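Input for the complex:
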Amino acid sequence: MADVLAAPRPRRSRLVRRVARHPIGIAAAAVIVVLLVMVTLGPVLYGQSPETANPAESLASPGAQHWLGTDELGRDVFARILAGGRVSLAVGLLSMLVGLTLGTLVGGLSGYFGGRTEMLLMRTVDVFMAIPAFFLILVIITAFGNHPATVIVTVGLGFWAQMARVVHAEFSKYRNAEFVEATHALGASHPRTMTLHILPQVVPQAIVLATLGVGWSILSEAALSYLGLGIQPPLASWGSMLQNAQAYLWAKPMLAIYPGLFIALTVLAFNTLGNALRDVLDPRDV
Amino acid sequence: MTAYIIRRLMQGVVVLFLISAVTFFLINLAPGGPSSAVSFQSTAAEREAVLKQYGLDKPVMVRYVDWLSQAVRGNLGTSLNQGLPVARLLAQRAGATLELGLTALFLATLGGVLLGIVAAGFRNRWPDHVVSALSALGMAIPGFWLGIVVIIVFAVHLGWLPTSGVFSVGKQFSLADRLRHLALPAGVLAFTLMPNIVRVTRSALLEVTHSDYVRTAHAKGLLPRVVLLKHTFKNALVPVLAILGLVTTVLFSGSVVIESVFGWAGLGRLAIEAANGRDYPVILGVTLLAGAFVVVVNLLVDLLYAAVDPRIRHG
Amino acid sequence: MPRKTGPHLTTRLLALLAALAIFTIATAQTPNYDPNGSLTFVTNADPTLNPWTPGAVIESNLVNTILFDQLTRYSTKDLTPSPDLATSWEAAPDALSWTFHLRQGVKWSDGKPFGAADVAFTFNKVILNKALGANNSSVFSPVDHVEVVDPNTVRFVLKSPFSSLPYYLAYFAGMLPAHVLESAPNPLQVASFNKSNPVVTGPFKVAEFVPGSYVRLEPNPDYWGQAPKVKTIVFKVVADPNTQLAQLLAGDVDMVTVTNPTLLAGVERNPNLEVLRQSQNIWYWVALNQSDPRFTDVRVRQALLTAIDRQAIIDSVLKGYGTVATGPIAPLQKAFYDGSVPSYPYDPARAKQLMADAGWTPGPDGILQKDGKKLTITVPTGQFGYLVNATLLVQQYWKAIGVDAKLNVMEWNAYIQDVVVKRNYQATLAWWSTPPTPDITPYFSTAAAEKGNNIPNYKNAELDALMAKARAATNVDDEVTVVKAIEANVAQNLPYLFLWYPDIITVLNKKVGGMATINTPTAFQYSADWYVKR
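Predicted:
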């Protein structure tokens, strides 16, 4: 009895040891936490408003009152970075969730069951993927307008099909594998086999893709805003700030650098974290 | 195998039909009309006259059926805003996008696979870290921003390369001239695509390297290089192929923004102009073309899968 | 040694004179411009080479101006109508017709002669044919039809007096060849004409059109005027304004019209470029939908204009490239412009007072209210140029006097559908760009409300009468008197809230010579005068 109770601990400490071997991953996680705290608490603590325009102070350099200076309408850049961060991160995370859920579901089901199910589902994926992601997003947003919820769902829709394809490839690799036959022989039901036995094999790939998904979503939103289709003013997002800053590349290039920097930093952090997570969770990593 | 191919192609036709229907109905939900009819200064009389000319006063279903019955005969109609036959417009623009896309894909695959092998081979040592850092950077930087910066540095300040366009105006065709125009946009596009390929190559190689059959090969005493090439690489190819298939289709999306920045007269820019301008026949034409391309590429990738990994059977 | 004089000196002098003479003649023959010169311009999309085809707008205007001559063109000095394909014109004493005398010996670029038949075709079969929906055709609504008096004379028969006809004939109103287009089912949609090789009378004709890339023009050997001094003109298709400027800075392009003044920073330091501040008859406005009873009170309109610090918006959004507007007639119309009308200087206190006079007082939350209803205004805004930024500032100024304005930023096409087609808006900010004529009927008349260009749906019988009187004027002095009365009327009643006249900034490579500086559309009507400096 005591042995059984004692058993889990060595596994957990092994996990902790593995995590400790990835200082970069921890750093990335820390960066993400800091960013999340900044965009949540920042607007409360930092005095300036992201929306109040002050034409007299337009394009001011960084100073005591405006930590990163002001934009063309005299709005505080740092406040907009914080407010924009909220929007960009929210869009990034939520879009990724939409894509991840839909993609794993469809990919898993089609890869596992094969036959008719596979044909039907994968052809649906083909239909989605046959309309290039960006173009699909363009068409949907043109049709339905650019309300933030529409943008989130649409960006997620641009990404789920890729997810489904890769998950499908992985599931179809394993569907005829010996260990799967074994679980069936032991009487496991399909959902059980899929979630408890095959899914864990797919998790490393899925995590990497999911974190890539956050990055891709944030970058997609930025590109959409560059084309004028994403988050609309006065709501700030890092992408729409880049669109405004585009006109000032010669006059005040830093206006484009700040949001670009934050986008790059955030996406970098998520990707690094994803890498580290994959290394930690990969059961074959000795 | 032939039966499989034929079946997939037929499914492809169904897919194209579905795509066209979905796109048609979606784009007709969009408010407004073709920009040649609906402009800020046109009066109601002018607007209505032009919309009637374009047949846009008919109900949506009727218009779709009209379009479809012409499309199956190979007639994709005329652009509402540009006055040119859609097929001709597509042909002209597709060439430019293919040029850009294939070059970028070639550069990205070359660079990506090589870097991925380096990273896997020197796992957790400094080359791996450098490659990881570079590819992480490549995935984090917005492509259009990189494009503008690159134009400013290389074309304006240094004057080494042209600022935009597919070729110089009025000159005879010259390979050198085309390559100079291709350098920046293809480079930027490849830079944004490479990280995906690096990542997947590396992780696939690593996954396979630790599997039993590879350990057996090592145990048998085979040289590491032989193991890498004969056993590891082929099996690692499966997910890499999947990603390549994805990347090829993602090229359309990536090139949309790059084409806008570099003034590249390709399908991506055509798509944006057509969507913004509600040029229905062109939107449908581009969708069909892109769709057909993707269906064919997916089929090729799946066939390659079967060739490379006997575990995956197609029946 | 004694100097030789006499016949030797005379010979030397003669030789010197001869040499001088030869030298003068020789240099006079050598042009001070490059005879193989080439000029490159940009356009943001593929042009449609037909000025009347629906949708041929800013991407086509400049190239069409070079290719297609008009009956009249604007003077480069004061923008009054000057001869082009017509050499003189006069209105009938009853003001119900205009007769135009055409220039003799003009040929189309395919060698056929130009004449009255072409003018009649262009108007009767194209512009006045409602089913075709030609661009800008609605401004010619007072024209009933055009008669051919003889091969070199046409008469415009009018439904009502139309004193500004010669002005409209110079505004992107090129003539079309009857012999080429009259047999086409739709003369405005002939692809071989619009997209390849149109038949024209201008100084240049099309040599090559590569869709998506460029249009190349070459001199027209049949041109009626002085032969052009430039060998090639190219219009490159470059969609992105940043890229256009990058091309200008790199020397790949010779002229760019800059719509966003903030892009000028890199340009001003470049020694090869010159920045020209020009003006056209463009005025930005806020329209308050007159179907909304809250805005029918003139004090509310005046208050909302007084609350806006227009100069501050000009300084920040337009970087100073603009002037506060007093009405729809810009200062460049020197004969007609009246700057003495009420101009509503920025005064938030006065604005609040005006609102109070109209019954709007601040509620507990600071927002104005009347009869228990808050003053909330929805403001659809199109994504174009700096409209969004300007509207954001207006929203802020209105907030300061207690008006709750909610912005709804929309994609341009959707915006047009809502605001222009359905008139489903409460307030909106946009602009008009009109020919430099004092005729403002299309934008202010009751007949133009709802379905026409009277976006606020403003209806005022007194103003309608004044505008009709201006159209019936038979001489300039009478017209000036009536126009000044019109300006006073609209300044008082504010059918639109007049915001500013933007400066048009043209950046030119210094190698371009002979281009009129008054404004670009006018300069392009004189492309035969251009040359490339050595």
